[in-house]
Fold this sequence. Notes:
mainly alpha, 68% helix
Amino acid sequence: MDAIILQILNGLDKGSAYALIALGLTLIFGTLGVVNFAHGALFMIGAFCAVTLQRILALSHEVAVPGETDFLGNPLMRNVPYVYDWFGEAAGQTIIEWSVPLALLFAIPIMIAVGVIMERGLIKHFYKRPHADQILVTFGLAIVMAELIKYWFGANPIPAPAPPAFTGSFDFGAALGMDPNTIIYPYWRLVYFGFAAVVIAAVFAFLQFTTFGMVVRAGMADRETVGLLGIDIDKRFTIMFAIAACVAGVAGVMYAPINSPNYHMGMDFLVLSFVVVVVGGMGSLPGAVLAGFVLGILESFASMREVIEFMPGINQVVIYLAAIIILLTRPRGLLGRKGMMED
């Protein structure tokens, strides 16, 4: 039982990242009809927003330590972060330690700007082009973004630690009345799952209960009719692209302590996220979320030592095998609209 609970928790952790990226992908495909292979790069940029803020907060200057000298009699110097000068040492240290959550405020305007620039500068020219053209140009854009990150930050992963308050682990075994220390799970992974749930709920609430969201949903169903009503649907779709970019970005920010940011992490998640979108049903937001968590849990169970010993390498291909089975039996995906991809 403890192994099952642990794998479910691992699956929810992975599924949270898959669902958030797939949610943004589905928003873009459902509203614009664009297959955006650069979406994983937006996840990567979000993670490096956390790294960037961490470095900004660590900027320091040298000050002399009162009453202390080196062996030559010169004043002993130490580096003091500028935030210590601005907020005091205690508050400054707290700000540095909480740089990852604070990076959400830093990343949101950056990701909105990146989304608008991408959509207005490039994506809008490919609305009516074949999906193959969209894939080629967005995949090329993703490669360019990854190489720029590699140039500025290097090829090695860069740690972005979680706040000290969340560096420990939660004892699920004791909480569930089982033996203590049987199910230990990191606090930050639980935080990430809760964060993903809040973001997903916020996106669905925005689309369901706001006038803007109602117009967008109508545009997803029949773009031409909405345009004939005098509504500037293109402007709204630009905003939706920015929102989708923002969702991917904040997902990357909060994932930074789990997987140290590196320049290829966007590609690592991109292919799996597209599989999630297709399995959930192209254009189906609930399907993307459901498939993300289902496939995340499935991958987690396939990574168990007993399963790998019985079927070596199954953890590397289980998601694709599941996708093949689902699409052969239900071509429109788990929650796709009837007729979608069934011709």
